[in-house]
Each structure stands twice: as structure tokens, then as C-alpha cells.
Batch of 2 targets.
Target 1
Amino acid sequence: MKPLLPFLSTLSLTSAATFTNPIIWQDHPDLDVFRINDTFYYSSSTFAYSPGAPVLRSYDLANWEPVSHSVPTLNFGSQYNLANNQRAYVKGIWASTLRYSSRRDRFYWLGCVDGKTYVWIHNGLNKEWNWQAKGTVQGAGCYYDAGMLVDDESSGEIFVAYGNKEIRVAQLTDDGSGNLKETRNQVVYNSGSETVEGARMYKIKGHSPWGSYTKRSLVEKISGPLANAGFAHQGGVVDTQDGRWYYMGFLDAYPGGRIPVLAPMTWSGDGWPSVVVDGNRGWGREYPMPVNTTRAVKGMLGVVEEFKGAKLGEGWEWNHNPDGGKWSLDSNGGGLVLKTAAVTGDLFAARNTLTHRIVGPKSRGTFRIDVSKMADGDRAGAVLFRDQAGYIGIHKSGNTASIVVVNGLNLVEGQWTTSSTGKVAATGPSVTASEVWFRVQADITPAFGTNIGRQAVFSYSLDGKTFTNLGPALSMTNSWRYFTGYRYGVFNFATKSLGGEVKVKSFSMELV
Ligand SMILES: *[C@@H]1O[C@H](CO)[C@@H](O)[C@H](O)[C@H]1NC(C)=O
Ligand SMILES: *[C@@H]1O[C@H](CO)[C@@H](O)[C@H](O)[C@H]1NC(C)=O
């Protein structure tokens, strides 16, 4: 059933006896999940979006909220700043890992970026999030698709399992302040030619981390729970405080990206897990709630943002590291001020595009923008962002602010250079008032592996109530190669010279 209001659905899920897959209909791929007492944490990958590696929190495994990002700034090189003709599309953070050491009261995030394994830490479970960069793991190369284990039952040793054919285990030491160094590394399993990505390592009955290891399948190519979304894969397993086990994987749900699904697990007498399947031997759409709790989370369905806080909410990520001198939050009444940060004709080269994940299956994102301080040649508006993008916004020419829809903004798949900066597909009225509302409505119902082009529709409003569609709908790509799904975004760039600005007064996202 479709919820009428986003917050109502969050409340009803919290008190429900069952949960429904996908547990989050948003692009949160390469997940790593673990528990500290009654709290579950979920880390995922973000490529060249900044901040990176979001941390989600849950008390029941089914309802989640964003609480932090492990990588506040992409500290992997200047190409992550989208400046000086450099770009890092599809590079950056992919399958990485997050764990907590109770002995040290320290969270560790680590992930392989451009051949090195970077580390960020946060000290203090109950302290306000404050991540610190710890360089790279000394003596280590790339921990490809890493899975970390902190053995706090023993003396707090840190192990990492990684690889995609040759699976290795590395042992790391912490010098006391969070700097990690590799002290041992060996191959523990070799799959031959078969790819076995996304290693995770758990200490369940105290076997040696060095093996020997035997392979069996937990699930393999079982159907469901959504059509046209591939098979649930990668992810991890986690237990509840009362000893129930769950496997969380993700589906290739393009055009929306990769979205998590959850299922209970059972253990055989000889110590092997299997996933509880539904009546059709597939991954279930619904299962009993893993945990009964009165502790609620904000949920991830609806968003109403007026940019009134001291910092951006955790739902936001910039396209590459932003230019901090060109954006601010207005502490006097709210609003996100975006000064133009680049002179370019190419949105993919323009710094400071701010993005938000799309909630599925169908939703709309609406930005209310004050455009009165745009300068001649500036372009600003709401973008449906990916490597094949489109937008609705203002093209300012002289004193005239025309509403336009631009489509066909494209990157070359695999190279991620710009092949097209887009064409004006429709022109609406000129705006004389200071504010305009831009809306993108996107259907991200999975269509992976099909030729179905899900549609996104652009509209604008001059009063915030009546919206007028403009231009052709955009047919979204289902390709996986950009890895990240479509996002709602807001942008402002100059084609002539810097100096103009817009103020984003609000953003709302709701299911439709
Ligand atoms: C988990 O709960 C136990 C029992 O209440 C407590 O002693 C321990 O400190 C908690 N662990 C963490 C990491 O908070
Ligand atoms: C939650 O409470 C319901 C109703 O009392 C019960 O049937 C169910 O088994 C409980 N679930 C868990 C995970 O404890």
C-alpha cells in the first residue's frame, strides 16, 4: 500500500509485525552492516559524492536513518575537487567496511581508493560524530572489497578479508591513536577463475582467521523480491541481541541504483547458514520484524528541508568535494546560498551541485529557489543527475530569466568525459518574481536488464501550488556502469563570469 504521507508510513512501519523489502528504497550499495548492543549500523559506498560513506542507524534492522558520513572530505587527490579540468566520476568510495572496537571505543572505516587503502576513525560511541583522517594503512596495498573484523572478545585484533578471486586476510595493528599498519597478510582461499567479491569475516565459533576455509552458497540467484532488479548479492550478515540472524544484500535496481533487502537466516546442525525463502523458494517480500522496539528512527521516505540548521543534513552529498567558499547556510532565516563556483558550459564540470538520493518506487523532489541574484549567463535549477542527465531551471541572459528544460547531458560510458552538455528542449515563461519552484518527478521502479526507459517529468511553479509540466519526459538509463543511481540535485553555475548566486529556500521529497 502506498503511504499518503511519508511520516505516517514511517510510524506504521515501526509498529508493524512485519517488514517489507526493499527495506530502504534508495541507492545504498556495497553495504556493510553490524550491531553494537541494541543499535545497528550500515555503511555504504558513494563514489565521487562528498561527503562519502554514509552511516545509517537502526534499532530493528528494517527502519533506518542517516546519522553521519565516515569520509567528510574525499582526501584521495585533487581530482576529487572537480577543479582544474579534473574529475573523478565512478572513482572514489566503492565496497568499503566499517566496524567498532569497544576496547578502544573507536569506529574504523577503511576502503580501497585508487590502489591505496584509506582509513578514517571516530572516537567515542556516545560522542558527536567527528571523523578524522588517518592516511592509508601502512604496508598495505588495495584491500579490494574489504570486510573488517575487530576481535574484541580477544585482545582487539583487527583483521581484513578482501579480494575477488584470491581472498586474503590481513592483520592490522593500531598504534594507539588510530593509525593502522599491516603486520601479516596471507591468501586464505583461491577461487580459481570464479569471482567471489565482497568478502566479510565474522567470528562466530572461534575458528582461526587464517583458515582453512571451505566454500558453500548462502543464496544463489534466487528470484525476488522485486522484478527487474537482478539477484540479491554482496552485503553481510548480522545478529540481533536475542540471537536471530539476518542476511542483508542489495539488488541492482537501476535506474534507481542498488537497494538493500533483508531476510532471516537459519543455521544447520553442522554450522552452515541458509536464507529463509518464501513459498516460491524466492527472497520474500515480507518477513516478521527482527526486533520489537519502541525506539524510533526518522526513516528515509520523506524529506522536508528548509536549510535552517548549522550544517547540511546527512541526506545531502555534493557531486565531488565542494568549494567551501561558494556555499553557505543562511543562519538568519534559513536557506542554502549557492554562489556560482565555476565558469563552464558543462554541468558535469561545475562544482557545488548538491544531490539527494531518490526514494522509490515513484517520488518527486521540489526545490524552492530565489533566483533574483542570478547574473547574466548563469544557469541554475533542479537536475535529475547521473551520467545521462536532464534539468529544469533558469538560463539568465541579460536581465531575462527564462525557464528551460535541458536534456541530453551525457558522459561517455567508461571514460566519463562529457560527450554532450545538453540542449534546450523546451522554454517556458520568463520569471520576474524572485522565487520559483522546480520539480522533478521520477519513476525508479526497477527496469534493470530491460529496455524499459523509466520516465522523469520536469515541472515548475511560480506560486508553490500550481505546477506546470515543461518539455519532454526524460527516459532514464538502466546501465550499471556508472554504479550510482539517479539523484535529485540543485545546481548553479556561470557561463560568463562568477558573482551571481541563488538561495535554495527549501527541498521536499515525497512518494507519489
Ligand atoms: C553493551 O551493553 C553492556 C551491558 O549493558 C555494556 O556493559 C556495554 O558497555 C555496552 N557496550 C557498548 C559498546 O556500549
Ligand atoms: C514481537 O512481538 C510480537 C507480539 O508480541 C511477537 O509475536 C513477536 O515474536 C515478537 N518478535 C520478536 C522479534 O521478538
Target 2
Amino acid sequence: MEKYRTCTLCEAMCGLKIEVNNGIVQSIKGDEKDPFSRGHICPKALALKDLHEDPNRIRTPLLREGERWIPIPWNQAIEWVARKIVALQQRYDEDAFAIYAGNPNVHNLGSMLYLPTFTRLLKTRNRFSASSVDQWPHQQVAFHMYGHQFLVPIPDLDNLDLFVIMGGNPLASNGSMMTAPDLRTRLKTIRDRGHLVVIDPRQTETAKLAQEHLAIRPGSDAFFLSGILRYFFENNLIDQGAWQSYSENLEALHTFVSAFSYAEIERHTQIPTVDLQRLAQRFAEAPRAAWYGRVGVSTQKFGATSQWLIQAINLVAGKFDRPGGVLFPNPAAPLLNFISKGHFDRWQSRVSKWPEFSGELPLICLREEIETEGPGQIRGLLVAAGNPVVSNPDGARLEEALQKLEFLVCVDFYKNETSRHAHLILPPASPLERDHFDLIFHQLAIRNTVKYSPPTFPRSEGSWDDGQIYAALACSLARLKKRPWKERLRLAYMRRISPARQIAWALKRGPHGVSMKALRENPHGIDLGPLEPQAPANLPKGKVDLAPARYLADLERMKKEPQPCAEFVVVGRRHLLNNNSWLRHIPHLTKGKNRMTLHIHPEDAQTLNLANGGLAQVSTQTGSITVLVETDTAMARGVVSLPYGFSDRAEPETNSLFAHQVSLNDIIPLAADACSGNAILNGVAVEIKAVSEAKNT
Ligand SMILES: Nc1nc2c(c(=O)[nH]1)N[C@H]1C(S)=C(S)[C@@H](COP(=O)(O)OP(=O)(O)OC[C@H]3O[C@@H](n4cnc5c(=O)[nH]c(N)nc54)[C@H](O)[C@@H]3O)O[C@H]1N2
Ligand SMILES: Nc1nc2c(c(=O)[nH]1)N[C@H]1C(S)=C(S)[C@@H](COP(=O)(O)OP(=O)(O)OC[C@H]3O[C@@H](n4cnc5c(=O)[nH]c(N)nc54)[C@H](O)[C@@H]3O)O[C@H]1N2
Ligand code: SF4
Ligand SMILES: [Mo]
């Protein structure tokens, strides 16, 4: 029997055709009839079978007693967690219990619907998520410029002729904040009919596909981007289109970008001024063009200011809200109605006074909030689908801090570097046992489409999905916290309404009037057409702020930025067959050549006396790791790259088979972009030296 669903492993939303026989997955292939992905999948999709069948996937709640893990029934586990939370909050205060929500929650309908309800009931200010080690700059810039944290303009990829990719490697990541299946074909098409430019310190797989690669010095994007805008202003290249009528503060933007001379910009970025000016001219003149920046731009020192300047470039060059430029999606289930517009700096973190964003604090302050004594100190934590020991800077020390907690509960089906320290693990159902609807990624997609995926398999006995877990926790918490009966009744009712029914309501009220019945009749999904102009009607305030004060103020910090010196800096690296910190134990994704290697330019390796295939020690003030060296001319001089997401500190059945697994974040110092609070994960200075084999053995 053939079953259809959307893959939930990354943001590309590929349609899957799953052949099932006697309750067993026979094959997973691309669904050619999916109107969006047209049959494309990547090798990771097959891991859904491995995950589903993995005998080491945890299937029952596990309570830790010393070294032993004791299986306990679900109702007992839920009650245990709720009682612990309430007792802790009564003994100390509400902030004593914290929550961290990891990346897979955005790929999980149940979590999307019920985790926020549970979180609100905690009434803690200590809320964290993977967003602050990832895309806070995008969300904050959207909030400050357009008025909603998820009003992010998306490249009209299938209709543009010039595309600039800065700090993203879609050929490995399959795209991010730009949902589009089969990016290789889509990017090749742009390259063949127009021009594709990649700005990245490494000549990535994507850069190799492009006509033009500019090897930028990590962390200097804000300088390059201000140079592009400077060129527009100086050369009368400011578009005179409709955007001007609803945008304000153009002059302030002009003043900001006039601060740095081309010579200064060239020294920071190490990109020749002629290349910058040629690209600026070409971009301004191209009728259909878009500038896109992703993780490498966001997770650096000037992440937010860089993302702001990217928006400004698209606006000022007349590419905003225009077919063939960047446009806002118009999803069938409007996410913007579900999620708050956002807010900023309503309160600050206790120890370092970081401003909150949309109710969350930067992940980089989790450790100090656990370790610093006093009222509001974190004593208990729930980790929902995440692995902060590996994903947050200075992970090894966070791991130590987590062990000081009175109470750690993890919602995860594996014992990763974080969950192995839990007092209780709540394991959700396998991804194939739950239904799915992409609430987030239709809001970030290059085309409006809609699809509902029913569960591929019925829920196995005793298996709960994430949504059920958080709904049950919310009900128990409300009862124990003696919340008003009306609220408890509402929660009990919510718990009984299936996610599919909630989606049906949202669709009915949505702009396309799609019904759940239509979705069930169209299991491959429905195409709703290309993105279309919507501004300014869709902007909450009806206008765009071209130069929010927060980013203008960042100029002072940029002026203090020292010129790059001879030192080495490290950047992270993703591989098509990895998925953040998980799936590393799936055999077909970890066979072949060891990918756990330090990429370094051969001439740099020679200077440092490093042999290809030898070992090197990479150090910062935070820590030291020993890695295999792989020389590669794709690296810019003075820049090395390491995969992110591995260590050998998970439980053995969850670890990969590669030798020399190390976690990059064990050496990344705990620091954030002062403007946004997002962690700085790229462009970090490192010392590198050769390790003799003899010493190592
Ligand atoms: N140095 C460096 N650090 C980085 C990055 C980088 O590029 N460089 N990238 C950052 C980015 S972009 C991100 S998003 C973060 C990610 O950081 P995290 O979100 O903290 O980590 P993940 O590896 O995504 O966590 C996945 C965990 O969730 C579990 N899981 C998977 N699916 C489900 C599910 O459906 N339900 C439940 N309950 N659990 C599930 C997996 O078993 C795994 O243990 O890391 C960030 N850290
Ligand atoms: N296969 C696979 N796919 C994934 C993931 C995965 O782990 N594996 N993770 C998913 C997640 S959570 C996310 S957020 C997305 C991320 O999606 P992408 O943003 O496409 O991720 P990366 O491949 O890390 O690309 C970041 C690029 O930025 C470059 N870079 C580093 N520092 C700088 C800098 O200072 N300036 C510039 N211009 N470039 C810089 C790096 O060399 C790298 O090529 O991928 C998602 N998809
Ligand atoms: S590209 Fe992403 S969504 Fe598509 S099959 Fe691979 S992991 Fe799944
Ligand atoms: Mo991410």
C-alpha cells in the first residue's frame, strides 16, 4: 500500500511516497505527484524508516535511579513531572523552572499546537529555544521593520535571474528560511538563465555551482552590505517604486551606510572593492533579483545588523514585494494569526540583563541562570526536543551545569548529550506515527502550497506523541496550580480536539478557504500559486521602517571592530547527511569517509606544519579539541571549518561511528551579538597546532 506524507526532517517539505506492507516500510521514495517537490527527496528521508524501526529508540518513559533507568507508565510520568514543577516553583519561585525548546518542535504539529500552552502555564521568565542560536536576527529584523516577527520576505526563487546567497549552503542544508524542495535544480536553473552569487568564506557545494564566489572574511558581512548600499546611494541607483510611499527613514539609512569608506570595507571583508561595486551595479540593474542571508550571517558578531542591511538592499533596489524579487507568502493556515507579533525588552535576564525577545531569553544565558545563586535561579529544566549541550556555545560547561539541577526532564526518543543527564525521559511517538501539517514552513515557502499528512502507521500501543505529552502536562499543571475552573475546562477541551480539527478551523478562516476534506482528497497536496505582492496592506502598521533605531545604534560597535589580523577563525559546516545533532547513528547516513574533519587551506596547513590526514589541536580560551586535518583549497586563507553537531558523549547507541567525534561548541566561547542576543557561532578566533601521532596514542 502506498502512503503519502511530507518529510519532517528539514525545512524543504518534500513529498514522500511510502510503500508499506504488513506494517513495515518497504521503501521511501519521492512523491512525483507532490506539486511542490515533484518527486525530489534527499538520502535523509530514508532515515524515517530507520528511526521508526530502531530498537534503541526509547518507547516508554524512563525514570533514572542512580545508574539505572526504570520504565514507568505514562500517567505516572506526567503526574511526576507536574508535581515536581509545582513543588519546585512553590519552594522557590516561578522562575526556578525553565524550558528549552529545540529545533524539531517546528517540524512537529503536536508540539506547535500544545507546547506554547504548556509553556504559558509555567509562568516562568526563563524560557529558551534554539531560535537564539539560529534565526533571532531574521525574526527581530522582521519585527522591527515590518511589524511581525514572522513577516519575513522570501526570495521568489522560480522567477528571478540574479540571486545572491550570503552565509547559506542550500546544497547541504536543503535551504532554510526559504522552503523549497530540490534547491539544486532550482539554483541550477537560475545559474543557467541568469547569475548566481555565493558570499561565503568557504567555496561551498553551492558556491561551486554558482558563477561567482566571493570569499568573505567571517563576521564582516555588515561592512560588505553597507558598501553595497553606499554604492546605490552614491550612484543614483535608488529605485523610485511604490515601496517609497510606505517606507520611512531612508535618510537615516543613507547616513549609516556612508560611515565606512570602500577601503575600510575591503580591509574588513577582504573582498576587492571592484567586486563589491560590480555586484552592486549588477544587482541594482537586474529587474528580477533577490539577496538572501542565512545561518552564517545570523550567527555572528553583527548578525542582526547584517540581516537588516539585507532587507534594506532588497527594498532600496526595488526588489521588495515584487514578483522576481522577495515577497511575503500567503499560507492557507495563516501562521501570523497563531503567533504573537513579537515584543522586545519587556524584561531582562536576571544575571546579565539581556533583553527578552517574544518571551524568550538568549540561550547563551542559560548556564549563568543555573549557576548564579539568588531569587530566580534555575533549579529545574524541561528540554523539549533539543540538545543544548551540543547546540549551545561552551557546551561542555553547560553539561556540567545541567548536572547541578534538582530536576531535568527531556522529551526525546534518544539519550543524547543532554537527555542522558535527565531524571526522566518522556519519549514521543515515531514521526511516522503522527499526522503532520507544516504551520511554520508554509509561511517561509517560495510558493503557496498546502498539504495534510495523516499518520503513516497507527499509534503503537502505549505510544504518545509530543502534542499529547504537552496537553497532558498542561492539564495536570493547571489542576495542581489550582487554575480557575474555566481555564481547566478549556484545557481539558483542547486536549480532546485533535490537531487535524484545529488545522481544519484555521484553514477555513484562512485566505484560500481550503477545507480539510479537500486536503484528504488530495493526499499529494494542493498548489495555490506563486507568491504575490501584498504590501503595504499586510503590514500591521501599514509601513516599513527602513532604519530601526536599534540597528542604527550598532554603528558605534562596528566602528570599534578591529581590522582582521593574522589569526585563524573557525566557521561551522553542515553536510547533506547530517541533521544538527541527531540521525548520526543511522548507518546509511554515517558510512563512508569520515566527515569529522578540520578543513584548512593547504598553504595554511603547510605554514602550521599540519599534514593532510594528521591530527590538529584547535583551541580557544574556552577549550581544546583534537581533530583530523583535511586540506582543501575551498577554504579562504585564515579560515578553518568544522562540522557542528557531534560529540562522543551521547549514549553509545546514539553516537556515530566516525572516529574523532568532537563538538565544535565545546570550544566556542559563550558570546552573543550585542544587538540581538543571538549566539556568535561563526568567525571565532582559534589557535591551531599539529599533534604528533605519538602523543595522541
Ligand atoms: N556551532 C554551531 N552551533 C549551532 C549551529 C551551528 O551552525 N554551529 N546551528 C544552530 C542551529 S541552526 C540550530 S537549529 C540548533 C539546533 O539545536 P537543538 O534544537 O538543541 O538540537 P537538535 O540537534 O536539533 O536536537 C534534536 C533532538 O531532538 C530529538 N528529536 C527529533 N525529533 C523529535 C521529535 O519529533 N520530538 C521530540 N520530542 N524530540 C525529537 C532528537 O532525538 C535530538 O536528540 O543548533 C545550533 N547550534
Ligand atoms: N543536511 C542538513 N540540513 C540541515 C541541517 C543540518 O544540520 N544538516 N540543519 C538545518 C537547520 S537547523 C538550519 S538552521 C539550516 C541552516 O541552513 P544554511 O544556512 O544553509 O546552513 P549552513 O550549511 O550551515 O551554511 C552556512 C554557511 O555560512 C558560511 N559562513 C560562516 N560564517 C560566515 C560569515 O561570517 N559570513 C558569511 N557570509 N558566511 C559565513 C559557512 O561557511 C556555511 O557555508 O539547515 C537545516 N538543514
Ligand atoms: S530535503 Fe529535507 S525534507 Fe526533503 S527529503 Fe531530505 S530531509 Fe526530507
Ligand atoms: Mo537551525
